[in-house]
Design goal:
This protein is mostly beta strands. About 5% of the residues lie in helices and about 45% in strands. Strands 1, 2, 3, 4, 5, 6, 9, 10, 11, 12 and 16 form an eleven-stranded mixed beta sheet that branches. Strands 7, 8, 15, 17 and 18 form a five-stranded antiparallel beta sheet that branches. Strands 13, 21, 26, 27 and 28 form a five-stranded mixed beta sheet that branches. The longest helix has 21 residues.
Length: about 350
Amino acid sequence: MKKYLMISAAVVAVFSMSCSKIEDTSEEQEIGFAVASYVPQTKAGELSIITVDGVTAFKCKAFLHSNGAAAGTDYFGADGETITYNGSDAWKPSHPYYWPKHPDSYINFVSWYDKNGTPGTATETAMLWEDRTIVADDNIMFADEAWRFKSNVSNDPIYGFNGVTAGVPTLFHHALAKVKIQFKADPLTDPTDSKSTFEVALQEVKLKSVHKQGTLSLHNSDPSDTRQNAWTADVANYFWLAKDPASDITIVNSNTALNGTFAELFPEQSVLPQEVADAMVLEIKYAITVKYDGATILAETDIPATIQLNTLKNSSNTPITDWLPNKIYTYSITINPMTDQILIDPAIDADWATENIAATIE
C-alpha cells in the first residue's frame, strides 16, 4: 500500500509540473475600437465621426465564438455596450473586456449609432429599423461588420483619428440623407437706376410629396476570414423602403421678407432617402413691391411658381433624381424681381458634404 501511495504522489507531482509548463502567462489584451466615417471617393475622405457628426459614443454588440464554435454568445451582454471616446486616445466600453486567448476563438462586432432610437434587431447577420418616422435631427449610422477578429488592429492610417492607434476597425455609413433649402432676392436695386428698388417676400412655400417613414433592413454574412464586411439592404439604392403615403411639408406660411443673402428657410435636416419623383415639387407664392425714390409704384401678391425638383441639376449638369444615403443636398433659390425669374444653383450631392443646386425665379 505504501508503494502504491508513493507512486500516486509521484504521478501527481509530474502532472503538476506539466501543468505549470503549459500555463498561459501572456498579458491580457483589452478590446478597443478605431473609428472612422466613410466617404467612398478616396481613403483621404474618411473622417472622424467626432468631427463630422459630433458623435463621441455609439452602441456595439460583440458575438464571441469560443474555440471556433459555430454559434456566438453575447460577449457584451444581450443589449450590447456603449463605446465611448475617452477624450484623448481611445474608444472603449464602459468597463474592460479582453480578447480571448484560445487561437481558434474570435469575436464579431456589430456597431451602430442612432441619436433618437435603436434598431429593433441587431444580430451578426441582420439589422432592422422598422417603420421609423424620420425627424429633422435624426442621425442613424451603421458600421461595416468586423468579422472574426482576435486582436486590436494597429497603425491603420484609415483609422488614425483622435489619437487612436489600435482597435477594432469600425467604419460608419450614414443611413439618412440631408436636405437644405434657402432663398434670396436679387437684384434689389435696378442696376441702371439706383432710385428703382424692389422688395420681395415669400407668402407660402410647400415641399410636396415627401416620404417620411420607412424600414431599413440590412443583411450580412460570414466571409470566413478576418475582415470588415459591408451590409446589404433590401432596397438597393435608398436602403430604406418607404412605408407611408407621400405628404407635404410647409416651409413658409406667412410673409417672409427676402434680402440679397440666402436665408435657410428649410435648415439642413435629415430626410428619408428616396426617389425624387415627379410629384416632388416646391410650390411657391410670393409678393413683389416696386418703389421709385422710396414711393411704391407697383405691388403684386400671390405670384405663383412651381419648381419640379427632379429637373434640377448639380454642378456636373446631372439631374438630382434621388436623395441618397450619406449625401447632403442644398437647393439655393433666387427670385429676380425685375423679371420674376426663379434661378436655381447647381446642386451638390457630394458624400456628407453639401451638393449645391441653384435656381432663379424670373
